[in-house]
Design goal:
Elements: H1 7-10, H2 13-27, H3 29-43, H4 60-67, H5 76-92, H6 125-131
Helix pairs in contact: 2-3
Length: 142
């Protein structure tokens, strides 16, 4: 995504294996029945394999963002990598990358140009809507 690392190298394993587990439940009725029977017997629940919802969190953007550099050891190199990624994302969506230097929503401490750049998933939706008058759909990047 942002570099040449394969996602399996940088992702958080529990999310990956959780997704595989959930996928097996969705696509394999026998597997789902065994899992639900075990869960029901252990917890006294009554989950029904014919009537359930399952949801997954996809965290690729966050995981790749973290792979660009550690937030607790933020450096000029990390900042440059993250800024380049944000510039590319904004340009791809048709926005001027200079928006980053005009609005507090992009900065962890709210001070434009000082502090760390937020991962787009952390951008405050309310603040994005406040600047939405000058852009078309900035919230879609988040």
């Amino acid at each position: 995504m942002f570099n040449n690392n394969h996602y399996y190298i940088i992702n958080r394993e529990e999310r990956h294996f959780g997704f595989l587990f959930g996928s097996a439940i969705i696509h394999n009725q026998d597997f789902a029945q065994r899992i639900f029977d075990r869960y029901n017997s252990m917890l006294g629940s009554d989950l029904d394999t014919n009537s359930f919802d399952i949801y997954f969190e996809v965290a690729a953007l966050r995981d790749y963002w973290r792979d660009l550099g550690r937030s607790d050891e933020y450096s000029n190199e990390t900042h440059t990598k993250r800024r380049n990624v944000l510039n590319a994302i904004l340009q791809e969506k048709g926005y001027d990358p200079g928006l980053i230097d005009q609005h507090r929503v992009f900065w962890t401490n709210g001070n434009i140009g000082s502090g760390k750049l937020w991962c787009p998933s952390e951008w405050n939706i309310t603040e994005l809507h406040q600047i939405e008058k000058s852009v078309n759909d900035l919230v879609s990047i988040r």
